[in-house]
Structure formats: C-alpha cells, structure tokens
From TrEMBL:
Superkingdom of origin: Bacteria
Entries under PANTHER family matching the protein: HYDROXYMETHYLPYRIMIDINE_PHOSPHOMETHYLPYRIMIDINE KINASE THI20-RELATED, PHOSPHOMETHYLPYRIMIDINE KINASE
Name of the protein described by the UniProt record: Thiamine-phosphate synthase
Domain Pyridoxamine kinase/Phosphomethylpyrimidine kinase: 9-213
Pfam family membership, one: ThiN
Amino acid sequence: MLLVISGFDPSAGAGILQDIKSLSLLGITAFGVVSCYTVQNSERVFSITFRKWEEIERELSVLPEPKVIKIGLISPEFVKLIREKFPNAKIIWNVILSSSSGYFFESAEIVKENLDYADLVVLNNNEAEKLQVLHIAERDSDKKFVITFGHSNDHSDRISVLYSGKYFAEERIIHNGKSHFHGTGCAFSSLLAGFIYLGYPPNEAIIETMRIMKKILILSGKEEPLRQVQTEKLAREWMKYEALEELEEIVEELVRIGKYTVPEVGQNVSYALPWSENEYEVAKFPGRIRLKEGIPTFVSGPAFKDKSHTARMCLTAKKYAPQIRCVSNIRYLPEYIENAVNAGLKVFKYDRASEPDEVRNEDGKSMEWMIKSAVRTSEQIPDIIYDEGWFGKEAMIRVFGRSPKDVMEKIKKVVGKTTQVRL
C-alpha cells in the first residue's frame, strides 16, 4: 500500500489532490491523510493550519501497513513519529520550506533535525541551499537527497535533477516565456514515490519521472491563465487508446458487410474524443476503407493521423450533441432509407442543391452546413443524414451515433434484409 500524507490545496495544483492525481497516472490506488489545510489559489498562499498529531494518528491507525509513504507539507517533527509508527515503510519526504510566492511554512532548523527519518528527501535547489545539503547530494555515496533545479537558471533549455553525485537532465518546458507551474514539486515527488513503490531503483525512478513530467507540463501549458500542473490531462491518453480499440472491434463487422456499404469514394468511421477540437484529435481509418475485388480493404489500422470528412462531421455534430461522437458514411440506396425509417431511426434528407455557393465551393464546408441544416429542421442530430448526390458528388448516407458499436448497429439496420445480411 502507498500512503500519502500531505496538505490540502483547494486549487488542486499542489498538495494531496495533486499527489493522488499523479499516482493515479501510474495505476496506483493511494491512501491519504491530510496533514494541514491551506487557503490559497494557484498564485498565492494566504494562510495555513497544521493538524495536530493526535488527529493524524487516529486516521493512520485505521489504515493498512504502508509499503511506501510520500510526505508533503507537514509539521517536520511528525516525520519522526511517522517513522516510529511505520518502521518498515520507505519514506519519501518532499520538503517545502516556503511557497513560491514567499509564504513561510517550515523552519529549516526543525526540518534538518528530522531529515534522518526519511529514506529519500526531495527538495528544490533553493531549499537545498538553506538546509546546507547540496554538497552532500553531490557525493556518489549519498542516497538520500533528490534535488531539483527548476528554480535556477531560468534561461537554460534544460531542467536538472541531482541524485547521488549524478545529474539527470530533461527539456525545460516553456509557455509564453514562462516555465514555472504551481505544483511541480508535488507532482514530481509523488511520481517518484510511485515508481519506487513499483520497484524502480531511485535513479531509474528519477529518469521515468522526468519523462512523464515533461509530458504533463506540455499539456498543462495549453490553458491560460491557469498556470498549474494539470496532471489529469495526461490521463486522457487512456481514452485515446480506448477509442482506437473500439474502432478495432468493429473491423470484422465492417469487412463482413462492406460489399454492401462501401461507396465509390470509400468509407470511413471516425470517433471523436470528448475534448477533440481538430481532425487530428479524432480516431479514424487513414486512407479510408476501399473495395478491392469486392472485399473491403484497409489502408491502415485506426489512428489519429490523416484528415477525413467523417472526422469533420464528428466535430460539428458534438457541438450540438456532445454525446454524438461517431460518424460513418455508407453507400446510398433508396431501400436503405426505407429500412432506416422502418427501423425507427431518425432520418433527415439533405438537398445539395440548396447549398450556397460559398459553402459548395469550399472544401469541407458542405458537411458542416449539412449538419446545421439538420439541426435547424429537426432540433437534434438525426441518426441518418442522406443526400441523393449532385454534380460531381456521389449520393451518400451518413450514420451518427455515440460510439463505433452504436454506429455499426445502426448500419446493420440500414442495410437490413435488403441485402440478406445475417443480423
């Protein structure tokens, strides 16, 4: 079990909320005890209230024996008490003497008196100088201090970490000329504790932690004016994997009925993520699905590469109905529309002749105009939008749904008994 004992930061940029978010990235379920409460935002600390040991100990007493304990902001003398209570645990203490805005937290002298009770001490270079431990960390034999240098040499394009006489370096992430984010120390020390919990030796844990921190900070800098570590954004990666997996799951079915559904221009199935804003954030089959000697052929497996009309339709559709994130185009046959109506699907007929010239003449605008027209008429995203073609434009059916499986079920209803497909 991994136990976190740290302060509560209501902004969630640092403290126990950040600790738990960071550890969840590694698939670790952490237990937590709050050591203090702060009144703060991502820019400034206004006040702090440390909890009494009796309160903390009562909570610790009902938890299982921890394998690793990550300690954040705490009354320094409590580290000794935690060591006495859990003598076999590996303690990783992220020392925080003061906030970046200058609010005083802990006495350097009292911290120094309790350093020996931790197995690893994580601190920045400013704190290392105040505690006079920088020279110790520079020794090959030292295995206690992990010193980060994010607060020094802001003009450098690298971030360094010193441990056991060796420097580790990674690219410094800068957004709008700034490289400081609220909560980097908490995220770094929690990830480090997590990798050690997973069995990594400290030097390897540092390397892996720095690699992940780089990814987190790249994503965290995309939203202004919030300048804090947004670990949760990296958690979106699992949804990207899941989107690709869901598209993979319908490949067999696409192949089975493809000779009835793939139009001359090719078919695609696109699946947007909840936050997708452009075509490269929409999963799809690059190059489209084509018929070769009557057999559906895939240029490649599902990916976030390439552009697609169905991807643009996904992006437009979810603006009106966020849950509608998947779209596929299929061949048009009049009986398919009849099947759809008989199956109870909501159907909208789009007249390409009604398109304004500025829409018709600009690539990609027709699909957006088409969906807007459907919403204006029916006040919702229909299951089916179809058109009977235009000069140089193949007649087409578009199927809208929540997921690839949902869209696939609707496609099977559309092709139905007309093609004697086994349902």
